[in-house]
Amino acid sequence: MSKIRQTFIIIIIVFTAGFYFNLKKQYSINDFTNSAISTENRVNQYIKLSCDYIDILSIYGNEYMTSNTHDTNSYLKDLNYNKSNNYYSLDSASVKGYSNYVGNLTGKGYIPIDSESIKELNLALNYNKYFYSIYKTLPGITWIYYTSKKGFMNIYPWISSKEFVYNDVLLEKEFFIGGLPNVNKNKSHFWTPIYNDAAGQGNMVTISKSIYNNQNFLGVVSIDITVNKLNYILQSKYNAFLLNEYNQIIGSNFDNHEMETKLLNLNDLLSEYTESQLKALKDLPKDKVAKWQDNYIYKLSFKDAPWALYCILPVDKVLIETFISTLPIFIIGAFLLLLSYEIYVRKKTETNLKGLVKELALTQSLLHKSASYDFLTSLLNRRGFFEKFSELLAKTNNKELISIIITDIDFFKRINDIYGHSIGDTVLVNVAHIIKNSINCNDIIARWGGEEFLIVLHNTKYEEAINKAEILRTSIANTIIKHKEVEIKLSMTFGVSKYDDSIGIEQCISNADKALYYGKNNGRNRVDGYEDLFK
């Protein structure tokens, strides 16, 4: 009988350990996937901002040059010709004290006097107000500049012509050649390979776009982005790197200081692998976790840049961490085996042993669920909400059609004080049920804390969210919650905001919360919108 009992316990331990091992392994892979998607979102947001800014600069330049009139820029008169070196510059900006707000415009030969060249010089100088604003707004920029095929350049921030001056060699660089009509026929923005900055700012990559006067190509406007900024964006607990179309590493969170000054290819970064193995890495499918050599790889691509993001998770790291997390089960199992001998001797404790095994299985289930869900209402908790919201953003094209509602039960403390916490819990469960049944399957609901609930409405405009909140408010106000002999009529106050991707979800939730507290301070049982109150 003792051997049968021991065998039974061993089977339970092995089964439980195996189940938990697989569960923990899958959790590690899911965490890796979520981290990769989060990294992709950060990189994609930076790419999108860079593309938006370069498009704005290009649109302005094209419209300016095709317009019939233009204003003379006040800085044009400050251009000076250097006879000894045969170039002109805006070096006087430093002497006159406005070099912080303009770039240095340098060009070869005499200052042009023909009308077309003067107009283009005015464009280059007018760009300064945009250069200044973009440089302050987009971190990681080294230089912003306009380069003309007529032999001049305006580069921001201002740098003395003694350190850098226009040279015709610049017209042979990738940032300029890529914009030529015979190379870039659709006039779209383009990214250069990684290169070492001629002005000594280290490795960088450039996004450029052509400027035209009708069909006449004039030059390109460009933004230089440092490798250090891309390295910073990639920071996470998993190794990741960005690979461009030229097989160059343009960003990495590897502990590799060579990237700041040395141009690295994929072979340099992953030198321990063969050419055929690296080719297999590049051929992996996108947007899914795949096995490569002894690693899990998540490969992602970007719409607005010819780059691929590779996130790496070593298989042995997953197995080791999973095994370590499973060790407590084996330790508990050893304890149960010892306990089983006592149970065999003392029949009385047999029930306790079965209860212990059941409790272990139940605890594992509850621990897994409690990571993402509120125990009382079965709604998402804060951690679960942010995971779900990241998934929602990844599959949502129009982020303007996301709205946020935060709601709070009015005088909930009074309910607890009068009727007791058990009835208070009943109220929370009933309210959660009402809200959950009132939203769509793609919407998100979470218990935000205490008597607060957070709702994210997918594909819903701000005005629709206001109406939805009003319907919810009315529904709850007309509901009587019964608990035994007690009947409770309650109300809720709602705050609504729209989602703005530029400020992030936490700030948007804070905006909704401000609207909620406005409603709390102005009578409760009402719906208030942040955009209506504070904008």
From TrEMBL:
Q: Does the keyword Chloroplast apply?
A: no
| Residues in coiled coil | none
Please name the GO terms that the record assigns under molecular function: diguanylate cyclase activity
Which top EC class is given? transferase
List residues of the GGDEF domain: 400-532
Q: Where are the transmembrane segments?
A: 7-23, 323-344
Keywords from UniProt, A to Z, are: Membrane, Nucleotidyltransferase, Transferase, Transmembrane, Transmembrane helix
InterPro entries recorded: Diguanylate_Cyclase, GGDEF_dom, Nucleotide_cyclase, Rev_trsase/Diguanyl_cyclase, Sensor-like_sf
The organism's place on the tree of life at top rank? Bacteria
- What EC number(s) does the entry state? 2.7.7.65
Q: Which SUPFAM superfamilies match?
A: Nucleotide cyclase, Sensory domain-like
Name the SMART domains for this protein: GGDEF (SM00267)
The answer to whether UniProt assigns keyword Transferase to this entry is yes
Question: What PANTHER family does the annotation carry?
Answer: DIGUANYLATE CYCLASE DGCM-RELATED, REGULATORY COMPONENTS OF SENSORY TRANSDUCTION SYSTEM
Q: Under what name is this protein listed?
A: Putative diguanylate cyclase YdaM
What's the source species for this entry? Clostridium homopropionicum DSM 5847
